[in-house]
């Protein structure tokens, strides 16, 4: 999913020079670019098109607010300004904004498609900020903050990621690599698992009784962390993952928590 023409990432801040040398063969096979989001903690610009968590999303004046299967308005979670990001995964290139909404049954339904909405916008032209309609259930977040992208950095997989590769002479995930996968809100990189390897769709059983990933399994694109400043808590310090199938463009969502 990495882009081929964007800013060069800096090393993972958790990776000391000594550790980088020790893990060099493993890092050569297990490094991707990611772009972290900083939520609050700086003077906001007030730009309604800026990235933010829990403020007013930009929408077309004639556009209906996303609703769940029961017709209830979803709650707006985040708006990511992709044009301001110094690096993008391929699935997001060519888009101006990504917005994420969830309904009240989001977690208990195991992230069923009717309980969330992803809005990808090619341009911000003609869009205006829209206030959140009344949300029937307890809100997912309680405060709004502008956010901004940090410089791209290198990211590395968790031990249970099936994309993780072991170099010759290494039989298992190196203990020193634990903690090198960022759990913050980020574009790209590797998904930070909290329970087990990320799987957006149920596995399928083949004719030999083997359980295999669904042929419709998407590719991870970004994750949204529990953002304490905004009062956003996915159950218990959880993370929401967004994935897109590279052939069909279909999006899927998954959540894990402690």
Automatic annotation (TrEMBL):
Pfam families: DUF1963
InterPro entries per UniProt: DUF1963 (IPR015315), YwqG-like_sf (IPR035948)
SUPFAM superfamilies: Hypothetical protein YwqG (SSF103032)
Lineage: Bacteria, Pseudomonadati, Pseudomonadota, Betaproteobacteria, Burkholderiales
Name of the featured protein: DUF1963 domain-containing protein
UniProt organism field: Comamonas testosteroni
């Amino acid at each position: 999913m990495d882009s081929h023409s964007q800013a060069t990432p800096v090393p993972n801040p958790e990776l000391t020079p000594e550790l980088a040398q020790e893990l060099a063969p493993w890092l050569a096979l297990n490094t991707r670019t990611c772009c972290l989001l900083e939520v609050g903690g700086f003077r906001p610009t007030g730009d309604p098109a800026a990235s933010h968590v829990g403020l007013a999303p930009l929408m077309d004046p004639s556009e209906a607010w996303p609703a769940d299967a029961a017709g209830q308005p979803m709650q707006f979670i985040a708006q990511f300004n992709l044009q301001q990001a110094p690096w993008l995964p391929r699935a997001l290139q060519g888009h101006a904004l990504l917005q994420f909404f969830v309904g009240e049954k989001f977690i208990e339904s195991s992230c069923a498609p009717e309980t969330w909405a992803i809005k990808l916008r090619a341009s911000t032209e003609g869009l205006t900020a829209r206030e959140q309609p009344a949300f029937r259930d307890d809100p997912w977040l309680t405060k709004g903050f502008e956010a901004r992208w940090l410089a791209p950095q290198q990211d590395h997989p968790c031990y249970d990621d099936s994309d993780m590769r072991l170099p010759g002479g290494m039989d298992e995930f190196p203990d020193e690599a634990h903690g090198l996968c960022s759990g913050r809100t980020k574009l790209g990189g590797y998904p930070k698992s909290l329970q087990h390897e990320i799987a957006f769709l149920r596995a399928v059983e083949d004719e030999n009784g083997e359980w295999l990933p669904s042929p419709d399994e998407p590719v991870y694109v970004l994750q949204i962390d529990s953002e304490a400043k905004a009062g956003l808590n996915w159950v218990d310090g959880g993370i929401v993952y967004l994935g897109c199938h590279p052939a069909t463009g279909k999006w899927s969502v998954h959540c894990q928590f402690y």
